[in-house]
Design goal:
40% helix, Trna Endonuclease, Chain: A, domain 1, six-stranded mixed β-sheet, 3 domains, alpha/beta
């Protein structure tokens, strides 16, 4: 005989359901009360996202599709499920529409008075309460990983990649200090950017198509090689600059520095922070693709089950670049949900207008690193 069933009401925001399921651990059966809209593949099937994030086998779950605004329909469909075989019935009424929550509450309260009816108060991000006894609480102590959070947003492992740091924490710290104190380093990184990454850069196509370039093969590149040697930058086979090291020199160093700094200061595990996340959404993710064309995220991490995205810009004095960056970061809420935290890390001292614009879009500025 099955012993425990966990019932979830599905809505746009999946994280409360995922956390609730993770906190209770494995049960015998999962029932999801959902709607046609939440099952729509074009907008993202929220039930599938939850199943993936919680690693639930399909044979252990049951879908009940209801009319989101019809209380009678919800109650009638719940009445067709035989709950009598379960010793423990756990219900999370946090999700769904208000009508779905009311219907579920009244149904279980009337027909299964021993059922545990839980909800998440708006002002309690890490607690669930029992409906008939608000003093009885469930403290969430499960910490989501980056992978689990992305899955809960419908971004599975085959739809994103991430980078490993090119250098260790010590090297990145030393490079950061050198960049701030040595104009020669700043001039060299700008020269490399103009050589390899600018739109009209003479070697941009070659570096884009190849993983490395021989700096001894061209007079202009020889000059760069000499300058890199003068700062003891490690080349490969003495004369080769690898693509990932070129990317490090043209801004990746700052991303890696921020990655290590945030990881250390927040005491994050390897699974809780990722560098250089590149998203590859499905072509039918029409709603999210409208808002988020640029799919590179410099640093992402999860702390206290909240998702943070950091955009790293060494120099953002250009007004157009600043505005473009702010709008991109604001669009993250369409992609990851309203709870995403956006941070702009920059070495630029922003003016008051820029600070105000960032504040309007709820973007935190990180520009003090010492």
């Amino acid at each position: 005989m099955n012993k425990t069933v966990l019932v979830s009401l599905i809505s746009e925001q999946t994280i409360p359901n995922v956390l609730f399921i993770k906190q209770f651990g494995v049960v015998d059966k999962y029932i999801f009360i959902t709607t046609e809209r939440m099952e729509n593949e074009d907008n993202g099937n929220r039930r599938e996202w939850i199943l993936k994030a919680c690693n639930i086998d399909d044979n252990k779950q049951q879908k009940i599709e209801v009319n989101a605004e019809d209380k009678i329909d919800v109650e009638e469909k719940l009445s067709k499920v035989d709950f009598s075989g379960f010793e423990r019935i756990i219900v999370n009424i946090t999700g769904g529409t208000k009508m779905m929550s009311i219907a579920a509450y009244e149904f279980f309260n009337k027909n299964y008075p021993d059922a545990e009816l839980w909800y998440k108060p708006i002002d309690k991000k890490d607690e669930f309460h029992i409906c008939n006894n608000p003093n009885k609480t469930l403290k969430i102590n499960y910490n989501l990983t980056v992978k689990e959070y992305l899955e809960a947003c419908g971004i599975f492992e085959d739809r994103y990649t991430f980078k490993k740091p090119v250098f260790d924490e010590s090297y990145c710290l030393n490079f950061y200090q050198s960049y701030n104190t040595n104009s020669k380093i700043r001039e060299l990184t700008e020269k490399i950017r103009n050589t390899f990454r600018a739109n009209d850069a003479p070697f941009s196509k070659k570096m884009k198509n190849e993983k490395e370039i021989d700096l001894s093969a061209d007079v202009e590149l020889l000059e760069i090689m000499t300058e890199l040697n003068s700062i003891d930058f490690p080349l490969d086979k003495d004369t080769f600059l690898l693509k990932n090291k070129m990317e490090f020199l043209t801004g990746g160093w700052f991303e890696e520095y921020v990655y290590y700094k945030v990881k250390k200061e927040n005491n994050l595990s390897e699974n809780s922070i990722s560098l250089g996340v590149k998203l590859d959404p499905k072509s039918n993710d029409k709603e999210r693709l409208k808002y988020f064309a640029n799919n590179d995220l410099d640093v992402v991490y999860v702390k206290n089950n909240e998702f943070y995205v950091i955009e790293c810009k060494t120099n953002i004095k250009d007004k157009g670049l600043f505005t473009e960056t702010v709008y991109k970061m604001a669009a993250l809420r369409k992609y990851f949900g309203l709870s995403v935290k956006s941070i702009l890390a920059t070495l630029t001292e922003l003016d008051e207008n820029q600070k105000e614009k960032a504040s309007v879009f709820q973007i935190q500025i990180l520009n003090k690193f010492d």
